[in-house]
Amino acid sequence: MLRKFIGFLFSALIVVLAFLTSPPVVAQQASWIQVEAHPSLAEAEGRARAYGTAFGDVNGFRMRSGWYAVALGPYGPAEARERLQELRIAGVIPIDSYLADGQAYGTQFWPAGAAVSNAAPAPTEGLIQVLPIPQTQQQPSVAPVTQTTQQALPQEPREETRAQARANESALSADERKAIQIALQWFGFYKSGIDGAFGPGSRRAMAVWQEENLYPATGVLTTRQRTTLLDNYQRALAALGLEEVREETAGIEITMPGALVEFEKYNYPFVHYAPKDDSGVRILLISQPGDTARLTALYNVMKTLQIVPPTGSRSLKSREFTLTGQDDTLHSYSYARQQTGMIKGFTLAYPPEKAGEMKKVIEVMQRTLTSRDAALSEEMSQTDAQSLDLLSGLELRKPTSVRSGFFVNSSGAVLTSAESLDSCARITFGDDQEAEIGARNGHLAVLKPKTSLAPLGYARFASGVGRLRSDVTVAGYSYGGKLPAPTMTFGTLADIRGLQGEEDLQRLEIATLGGDVGGPVLDMSGAVTGLVLPDRQASRTLPDGVALSARPEPVLDFLKSNGVAVSLAEERAEVGPEEVASRASDMTVLVNCW
């Protein structure tokens, strides 16, 4: 019997060694199988030495928690998962061994004289835990079995049965039960309240966690499984460095990821926290005196900041707002509320790959945000230079191109130039009124607002061309939106055809700028007689003082053929320049391409 037993162990060893031929992957993709953790270096070195007699890829690391981990690897993620299951089945590693990404690993102590790992060095001071959990008793280490072949394999003792696990669970205190729920909630398995009662929701969460970690899905955690879950939770907190911040100057108390950001400066109404160690995470604490009107103003300003990408949900209520933004390189979440004469909140910006862990940070920050009496004042600013592209030290989001357009009916449809619209990922009227292309042809495009819109005025079209050498007015955002209202430019109708005799174009003698493209051309009765086209035609740039415009007949045909309701000017009696400018200003809109 003894010879059969030794033969079985030797065969198992050969199977295990066969799994060790894959080359390690680069550190950024590394996955580890953590088999044990010990509070003392001497004990961990002894266990690493024992495992080293059977495995060729044993590593030892000091962890951020101060414990010492013994791990196998590194492997690719898929390989690590497969190996974990195979080694558990073979019974040559503890059944509570689990996969680790190495983020909690610090200085490498095994093999002796090994280079420092890719993980950051473990901190020497204790971390503040925002969700402290009761410590469970560490399972005793498993002594290796010495064989006559002088090979040593760790021998895993029998795991608790479900009845034993439930009996041990019944001895847990209320706080220990809550700790299990907190950890399960952190990792996304538990969705209900933290009450310490293990009802159906808690049992389902435990079963799913067990299944995800390759344990039998019994819905009752064994002592070792509870230890693994809570250790993983502590490591997650340690990696973020969650700690309470008391910002006395801003009058804010909040829990933040101190391992990822560090204080940078005050710049009213923000306290800036910059990324630490290239984390890519940035935080703004929002603090200013104000009522609900100022809250709304802050909401409108923050929508224009580069740190808040334009794609995302927006919610403005009477006393609070939420802004989210996502693009290929940046995600952000902003929240602020007004109470007792103060506006307090935060913005958390982070790379898309950190979305999972940052979701937890957002929950913690929003739950712990507390307002005190103090607030930042307008004098507290550290702007290095005056710039129209900066606000409180933050870049304003800028469109890739701007042009003009004008409302053609009371429903808010806008006519503009079709040039380069295909390159726009997003189109807005002004900064935030979302629009989409409704119809287009070679020169013209109709934009329709995504939400209802009631313009101050809209175009009344002339049914035919104007009189040669008659006065005309162009309305447009000549300077790309730097001015709050359209500019009026005056000129004359030079020809009712294009430069090569085109019947759908007319030529103007007028000094337009790039931002005027798409704007309306009006005669002195206030009727729209055309639309300004780009000054580059057929690979040629027009000289200064010359502009081309679409004639009114093809414009009307285009609109009617696409079902856009329009109005015709009933009278063509001239009005004063002030009246023409007023009508033009009410109908003209800034079109932004993002």
How would you characterize the overall build of this protein?
There is one protein chain. The chain starts with a helix and ends with a strand. The protein contains eleven helices and 35 strands. It has four domains: 2-154, Alpha-Beta Plaits; 162-221, no CATH class; 242-395, 3-Layer(aba) Sandwich (Protein Transport Mog1p, Chain A), CATH 3.40.1000.10; 399-594, Thrombin, subunit H (Beta Barrel). The strands form nine sheets. A seven-stranded antiparallel sheet has the order 10-11-12-16-15-14-13, sandwiched between helices. It has a six-stranded antiparallel β-barrel with strand order 20-21-24-23-22-35. A six-stranded antiparallel beta barrel has the order 26-27-28-33-30-29. It has 594 residues and is of the alpha+beta class.
Q: What is the averaged pLDDT score?
A: 83
Task: Output the CATH topology of the largest domain.
Answer: Thrombin, subunit H
* Computed Rg: 34 Å
Number of discrete helical segments: 11
How many β-strand runs?
35
Widest sheet: strand ordering: 10-11-12-16-15-14-13
Helicity, in percent? 10-25%
* Name of the CATH architecture of the largest domain: Beta Barrel
- Shape from CA axes? elongated
Instruction: Describe the main β-sheet briefly.
Output: 7 strands, antiparallel
